[in-house]
Protein: Cytochrome P450 90A1
Organism: Musa balbisiana
Amino acid sequence: MDSGRWSLQLFDVMLVVIAGIVFWELGRRRRTRAAAGRLPPGSVGLPVVGETLRLIAAYKTEDPEPFIDERVRRHGRLFTTHVFGERTVFSADPEFNRMVLGAEGRAVECSYPSSISTLLGAHSLLLMRGARHKRMHSLTLTRLASPAAIRDAALLPDIDRLVRRTLDSWSSSPSSSSPSRVLLLDQAKKITFELTVKQLVSFDPGEWTESLRREYLLLIEGFFSIPFPSFLSFTTYGRALKARKKVEAALKEVIRKRKQEKAAAGATMTRAAGGDKKRKDMLEELMDGGDEEEGMTEEETVDFLLALLVAGYETTSTIMTLAVKFLTDLPHALALLREEQEGIRAKKGDDEEQPLAWSDYKSMPFTQCVINETLRVANIISGVFRRSMTDIHFKGYKIPKGCKVFISFRAVHLDPEYFEDARTFNPWRWQNNEVAQLQQTGGAGVYTPFGGGSRLCPGYELARVVISVFLHYLVTGFSWEEAERDRLNEFLRPYSYRID
């Protein structure tokens, strides 16, 4: 009897064990299916506004990073939030960033707030998609920003001349021994705007370009404003719409005059064959069939040129300003950069008017370290928005079709997991071969100051050249001190310097 009782007890134990294994396996499968079908963890914040107010408030402080840091610490490098009216998956994961940037046109598409889309225009490069975007991106790169275009065309001399022209205006008058006070960001923006206008429509600095620049300032202010109805012209967005119409009218007038010039030139084309080539700016490229398969209407040409003006104006000038800010705060780095640039200037001999050549630009290794580090720390483009075109599966999560995704470059660039002492400006880190390799490989999702994938900023090399030329003439021709302290945040104000 005891033997039978023991057999029944053993049988019961086996049943319990088997049942436990079955239930554990069923639970594991349910958890796996649930994980595969759920969004990354996070918080949607307040009704309607979500966490938008917290995000904006963070970027108006001395240190905006806690908004990201707190959520990464709580939820991981992939988390869900609710900003600008939509549920958004926020990524501080370089692996996910690389995957999404490389999936443009297949799994994701670009997606921007309506205020930006309206002000730039539906035919801007930023909003183009598919084969047409590929063709126009290639044209922009080839015509304006490739090393060959900068080296072999007249682009580098234009950069050199415009930078010198602006810096020469800083010099104190002969009758005054006091230093000049310079609002550096304003002056940097003037350089980049005049250069971009020159390359797009061949206008030299003057009353027309300055009038256009004033309207551009109003237009850009409307990018991240609330898109109130257009009849509310007193709002930031309303003023931006009015400025957009003025810019559009100015560009249309240029296009019409250029068409008249081409028509007049066509009458004498036969005897002019083999003669000198006329200017070949971006407008000329577009009119000569830059998008041969589809052609471009006047409206499309305006949108395309207008967006390129925005792209060439805001970001490069801010990096120029912050490079000076960081160098001012780190005298040893400034001394090394000045030594490098004075060595290049010394090779020019007594000819102070001799412009920089491509070989000079390629002889600035420490300057490039400074630019790399400024791009990493400043993060002028903090990230990009995308929208999923299909369900995206990543590390057990599912991001459903139609969901907004924000790829944060800033969060990765300032993550100590990928950059030692990441919040410190240290240009010497780029002398390390492993770190320097990030620039050559597109960062593997870790270093992406110009984005990546098929929407890699076509002006990445041009930006570096402009900043390099600017720093060359600044450090070899001037000394300076900061006239007033300013805070460094996303809403950058002009830095003020006294220039000797």
Residues 28-36, 269-278, 488-494 have pLDDT under 50 and may be disordered.
